[in-house]
Each structure stands twice: as C-alpha cells, then as structure tokens.
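About this split. The held-out portion is used to measure sequence recovery: a designer receives only the structure tokens and must propose an amino acid at every position. Recovery is the fraction of positions where the proposal matches the reference. Here is one held-out target exactly as it appears in the evaluation file.
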C-alpha cells in the first residue's frame, strides 16, 4: 500500500509516517505540507492512498476537490478536527473516502487504509453515527429546498430579507415596487409555511439558502 501524507503539522506528519512505515503492507512514498503547490508533490509518484490532515485549513473542501480532480486514482483519507461533524460531512461530499479524527488509534488508521484501497469508504466508528445523522439532515434539507423551487426573484428577496432589509429597501435594490415586494413576501410565507418575515429567514437559514 503506497501512501503519501499531507500535513502542516510536522509532529502529526512524522507520526503518521513512522507508524505506517512500521507496517509490512505499507510504504510511505512521500510527505508534504499543505500549500498551493501541494498537488504537484504527487506527480510522478505511484501513490494509492493520500492522507490529508485538515487541521488549520480554511479551504479544506476545495483542497479535497482539487486533489480528487488532479489524481482520480488516489483514494483520500482525511483527518478532521475532533467534534466537527459538519467538517467531516463536507469532506465526504467533496470526495474523501475515509474520515478520521486525532482521537483515532493506530489500528483504526491501518484499517482505514485497507478499506479505502478495496474501494470502500471508512468512517472512524466513534463519530460514524453523528456523521450519518448529519448526512441524513443535509439530504432532507436538499429535498426540502428542491420541493420549494424558489424562482430567481424569490431567491433575491429571501437573500435581502436575510440581510434585514425592509420592503422599501428591497424594492429599491431590485428596482421593483414596494407592493410587488409585499407580494413576493406573501408567496414566500406560503412556500415556507411561515407566519412572518422572521420565520422565512429562519427557514432559509436552516436550508442553507
């Protein structure tokens, strides 16, 4: 199993490398910090699994997507910060095959590498249920957003309501009359089953609109 390790934390990077090199089935073919040029570190190397430590990365999902696009054959295991299921869910959505946290045991990492090489996904057991619950909630949100089918103008009005704009301010921004804005607010109340503007905003925030 040929593995490459990405981490901005030297201790973490060297620790993962040391453990994997102790396993007869694993060979660490390289390691690097995470930077704008990191993807080129895999070029020309026979890598089957990349391990990516996401700690301290503000653009983690874009890094995952870029790595997956540039090296489709490489299976990706990510280390997510502890107690951040949203982080883990976003990583899975972006294309990660394995999810670990700093609380994992050495045997968990070995099992993760083995599983993802077989084409399976692997989620560290002690966070799996939380992640699956979060995935179900996200799927429900997507389904509800699809059911609402807001028009382009309705989306604009929702966005301005979320900014706290009045009907007159929304009308001025969109170059429509205040009466027309009231019409759209009424339509949105119906679609969101909302009693008032605040409930529209709360529902929109919940659905990530």
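Reference sequence for scoring:
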């Amino acid at each position: 199993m040929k593995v490459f390790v990405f981490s901005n934390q030297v201790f973490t990077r060297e620790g993962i490398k040391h453990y994997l090199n102790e396993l007869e089935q694993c060979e660490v073919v390289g390691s690097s910090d995470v930077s704008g040029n990191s993807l080129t570190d895999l070029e020309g190397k026979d890598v089957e699994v990349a391990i990516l430590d996401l700690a301290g990365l503000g653009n983690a999902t874009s890094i995952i997507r870029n790595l997956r696009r540039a090296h489709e054959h490489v299976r990706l295991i990510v280390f997510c910060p502890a107690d951040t299921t949203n982080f883990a869910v976003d990583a899975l959505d972006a294309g990660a095959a394995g999810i670990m946290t700093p609380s994992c045991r050495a045997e968990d990492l070995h099992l993760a590498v083995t599983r993802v090489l077989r084409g399976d996904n692997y989620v560290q057991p002690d966070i799996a249920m939380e992640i699956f619950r979060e995935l179900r909630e996200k799927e429900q949100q997507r389904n509800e957003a699809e059911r609402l089918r807001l028009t382009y103008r309705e989306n604009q009005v929702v966005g301005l309501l979320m900014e706290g704009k009045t009907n007159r301010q929304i009308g001025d921004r969109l170059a429509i009359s205040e009466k027309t804005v009231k019409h759209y607010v009424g339509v949105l109340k119906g679609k969101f089953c909302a009693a008032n503007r605040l409930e529209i905003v709360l529902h929109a925030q919940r659905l990530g609109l």
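Annotator remark: The beta strands are 2-6, 27-32, 49-53, 75-79, 98-100, 122-123.
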